[in-house]
Known about the structure:
By secondary structure, the chain is an alpha+beta fold. The protein has 8 helices and 4 strands, in the order E-H-E-H-E-E-H-H-H-H-H-H. It has helices at about 15-25, 45-50, 70-75, 90-120, 120-125, 130-150, 160-170, 185-195; strands at about 5-10, 30-35, 60, 65-70. The chain starts with a strand and ends in a 12-residue tail after the last helix. The mean pLDDT is about 95. InterPro entries: Glutathione-S-Trfase_C-like, Glutathione-S-Trfase_C_sf, Glutathione_S-Trfase, Glutathione_S-Trfase_N, GST_C, Thioredoxin-like_sf. It holds the Pfam family GST_N_2.
Amino acid sequence: MAAEYTLYSMQFSGNCYKPRLAMHELGIPFRIVDFQKGAGQTTSPEFLALNPNAQVPLLVLPDGRPLAESNAMLLHLAEGSDLIPTDAYDRAICYQWLFFEQYSHEPVIAVARNWLTYIPGGRETMAHRIDEWQQKGNRVLAIMDQFLAQHAFFGGPAFSIADIALYAYTHVASEADYDLDRYPAIVAWLARVAARPRHVGLDWRP
Length: 206
């Protein structure tokens, strides 16, 4: 059997969902190594040898080279495909939204979702942060909604890895108490992404 990609992944994680969705979109075969939150797997010597940052997702290429950071994985996997715009400006806009997702979107919406939905007692522990998360997260969502009111997708005129990156945590933002009905352009975009023939949901596994 030919070597294939190996994805170290937590199923509920939006960051881990990104490469799963991209590989399914692109028809790239891969296998999953499941990690469980709080089980200490990311700090094992074997894993730290692959990713000293002790985080999943981690993608191991067929030749054995490791690659960390979900958006870096998207760039690698989509190289030469229609998921990266060929026009230089559209490509730069695609990258702009990748950076926005990691710098402005994920640190608020993903972190809030994790505490409010996946950490036992997290809502009580972080009650003092909820108002801040709401303020910052809704600002991010408003920026996205304003852009999507004039554009079908984030990385130029066609679906791209920027859409995959932003879809991952936006489509589950209600788990962080965000009301997506306030953002009709986002709701329409989520439907466009989910209607793609190769789309798979967060629960999908190869």
